[in-house]
Amino acid sequence: MSEPAERKPFLVRAGEGESVWSLGGRFTAKATAAVTEGRFALVESVAFQSTEPPWHIHHREDEAWYILDGKMTFYVGDAVLEAAAGCFAFAPRGIPHTFTVDVEPTRVLVFASPAGFEHFALELGEQARDDTPPAGLAVPGPEVLGPVAERYGIEVVGPPPRGPLTALAAIRVPRPAVGGCPGRPGDARGLTRPAYAWQVGPAHAEPGRHGGGCEGVCGGGAACAFFRRVAAAATGRGPVDAGGAGGGGRREPAVGQ
What we know:
- The N and C termini lie far apart (54 Å).
- The model is unreliable at 164-223 and 237-257 (pLDDT under 50).
- The strands form 6 sheets. Strands 8-5-10-3-2-1-11 form a 7-stranded antiparallel β-sheet.
- It is an alpha+beta fold.
- It folds into 2 domains: 19-128 and 136-141, Jelly Rolls, CATH 2.60.120; 165-252, no CATH class.
- It has helices spanning 33-36, 117-123, 142-151, 202-205, 215-218, 221-235; strands at residues 19-22, 25-31, 41-47, 56-58, 62-69, 71-76, 79-84, 88-91, 97-101, 106-113, 126-127, 154-156, 172-173, 180-181, 184-185, 195-196, 240-241, 251-252.
- The longest helix is centred in the last third of the chain and has 15 residues, at 221-235.
- A hairpin with a 2-residue loop joins strand 1 (19-22) and strand 2.
- 17% of the residues lie in helices and 29% in strands.
């Protein structure tokens, strides 16, 4: 049985570390699984509004952020965490979250425990040679982001916080093989495996109109309620009727309230 490799102290200087333009921003790895025995990862990020991710869940790691300069707002479940320079924000694994970049650019340290998330950002990126963002810098669309995110235990459950209504449904749930969505015949028709309902149209995004008969799109139940809450936040309409066509009229707070 071989002895474990000796762990040694190390220093990563300013500007050092593998650096990529990825997920709408710049990510520079400072500590990866290889040097922390997988216990945690630390990445320095330069974030823009283009970095704002869709609502998502990390199933493997806790995530945290320390703002070096700038300002961000983190939406973690029902919590709204406004973070300026010197603030620390924490998101436990398993809770839907997203964020907005309120000052461009914002420099932020991103922690993940255990390690692994850093490879997600590196895999989707292109090498950063200077501080000039490449043209068209953005979070990838679902056809690119989804399969890679799934490999890293990251589940997309809603649109970006500033996303358009026509791209509001990003919930990944099973669909019926025939018949489509009972609420709007023909929608999601013929899908036989989990997929993103990325372009179901604004009718499904309207608070109060997505529910009861739309199990073919959102799966019903908690997923449907969460989707309506995201819709309410995106439209700025505040609390919405979570009962829809058949939920009894219970009112859900909008995301972040």
